[in-house]
């Protein structure tokens, strides 16, 4: 190295200090990028293609905006509220996470700089807001969404993250097991999305009755990015390129595949057709269910979790949804209640049952038999009280996250409604992207020109060209 090229006061080893592990740092940045790709372009593509074509731009843009807005809020105050100095037992003190001294110093967990940790945790915060958007597609006022994102990230996400993931959080001290966000991200987004959907109100009746995807193949591309990105989602949470990270990655994909196949089989048995949209939903519920347990359960438990995540959310979505009045009344476009709230709750409970104490000690780096022991291992090792206590802590975490998100999401939606309508007008919802953004996703007429409804309504008599979709119950039930 030519020392003359270095700044005057910089030592040659300061770029890679003794405390930093280059392999861990490289893996953590890679994992963070994989999670980021789940959102941009993963969910941007999935949302833009799984809705009616008149909502393609709006749906994709809601995801893209949330990703950018969360990052600015995260470095401005959100990171320290989630992982910084304690303000109250469930919340950190807001502070800016941009100073050079802070970003280049060692993170509170892991042998890499704070800059890496801030980026890694940001992509988790961002995808949580984007998942919430899935419940609100096809009718939420975009300006209201612009206010909702920073408010919810500040007053809901940071509380859940600090309570469960910060070493100083009250649920963390109790010993709750949430390996990679089954509570903080998926249960939170499922409950918050369902609650916000209540406050925003439903889509137009015609959209609720018929809401076919505009491009199923493109939807699969987005879903594929989501699935493969989960390698970083769960593989990055040991904060080290370790054997536990490798186990978490394999468990994640085994559970997702088992869940997809289980959902597919149920669709064939009860509806007679193998639905690709149903298989995608099964994939998602499997990924959600394994997330709180990924690195602390054995492979056989991951398979059992996949079978349950492919069947229980299927039952709540396809059967209970029609029988429970509240579920019928609230218009949850992407069914995030079933795919994230139900699957997240299921994953949290199954983690309390199947968590292996030896794997937990590897992950948490503590030798504590009073915490982090699954119920079945408590029975096996004749520590029934410790296993029962772990189940109690898991249930406490679930109830806390549900209560937090119902209350905070409701307050945020109410406050926004005092400033601006949460829901688009009837005329705007009739038109969609053109009315909201002045843009449309597809050119459908001539050489790149837009299809003009006003000239052809008398010929076709419909708002858009007829679309060939499977005669499947799901086109009404879910996105």
TrEMBL record:
Keyword Transmembrane tagged: yes
Superkingdom in the source lineage: Eukaryota
SUPFAM superfamilies attached to this UniProt entry: Ammonium transporter
Family annotation (Pfam families): Ammonium_transp
GO cellular component: plasma membrane
Compartmental location: Cell membrane
Homology family: Belongs to the ammonia transporter channel (TC 1.A.11.2) family.
Protein name: Ammonium transporter
């Amino acid at each position: 190295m030519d020392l003359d090229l270095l700044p005057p006061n910089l030592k040659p080893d300061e770029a890679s200090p003794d405390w930093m592990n280059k392999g861990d740092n490289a893996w953590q940045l890679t994992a963070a990028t994989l999670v980021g790709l789940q959102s941009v372009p993963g969910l941007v593509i999935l949302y833009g293609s799984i809705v009616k074509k008149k909502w393609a731009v709006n749906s994709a843009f809601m995801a893209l905006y949330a990703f950018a807005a969360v990052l600015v809020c995260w470095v401005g105050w959100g990171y320290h509220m989630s992982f910084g100095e304690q303000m109250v037992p469930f919340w950190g003190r807001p502070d800016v996470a941009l100073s050079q001294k802070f970003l280049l110093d060692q993170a509170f967990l892991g042998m890499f700089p704070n800059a890496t940790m801030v980026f890694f945790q940001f992509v988790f915060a961002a995808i949580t807001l984007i998942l919430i958007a899935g419940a609100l597609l096809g009718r939420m006022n975009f300006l209201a969404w612009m206010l909702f994102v920073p408010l919810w990230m500040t007053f809901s996400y940071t509380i859940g993250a600090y309570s469960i993931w910060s070493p100083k959080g009250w649920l963390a001290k109790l010993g709750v097991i949430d390996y990679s966000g089954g509570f903080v991200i998926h249960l939170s987004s499922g409950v918050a999305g369902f609650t916000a959907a209540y406050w925003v109100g439903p889509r137009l009746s015609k959209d609720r009755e018929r809401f076919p995807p505009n491009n199923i193949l493109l939807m699969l591309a987005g879903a594929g990015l989501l699935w493969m990105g989960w390698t970083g989602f769960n593989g990055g949470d040991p904060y080290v390129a370790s054997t536990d990270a490798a186990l978490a990655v394999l468990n994640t994909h085994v559970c997702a595949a088992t869940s997809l196949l289980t959902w597919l089989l149920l669709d064939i048995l009860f509806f007679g057709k193998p639905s690709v949209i149903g298989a995608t939903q099964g994939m998602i519920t499997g990924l959600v269910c394994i997330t709180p347990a990924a690195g602390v359960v054995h492979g056989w438990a991951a398979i059992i979790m996949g079978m349950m995540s492919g069947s229980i959310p299927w039952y709540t979505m396809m059967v209970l949804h029609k029988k429970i009045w509240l579920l019928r009344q609230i218009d949850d476009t992407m069914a995030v209640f079933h795919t994230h709230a139900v699957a997240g709750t299921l994953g949290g409970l199954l983690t309390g049952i199947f968590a292996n104490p030896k794997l937990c000690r590897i992950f948490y780096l503590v030798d504590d038999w009073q915490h982090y022991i699954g119920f079945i291992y408590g029975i096996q090792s004749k520590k029934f009280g410790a296993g029962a206590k772990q189940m109690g802590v898991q249930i406490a975490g679930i109830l806390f996250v549900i209560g937090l998100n119902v209350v905070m999401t409701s307050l945020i939606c109410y406050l926004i409604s005092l400033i601006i309508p949460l829901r688009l007008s009837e005329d705007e919802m009739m038109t969609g992207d053109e009315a909201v953004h002045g843009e449309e996703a597809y050119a459908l007429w001539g050489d790149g020109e837009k299809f003009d409804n006003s000239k052809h309504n008398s010929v076709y008599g419909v708002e858009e060209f007829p679309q060939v979709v499977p005669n499947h119950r799901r086109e009404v039930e879910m996105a």
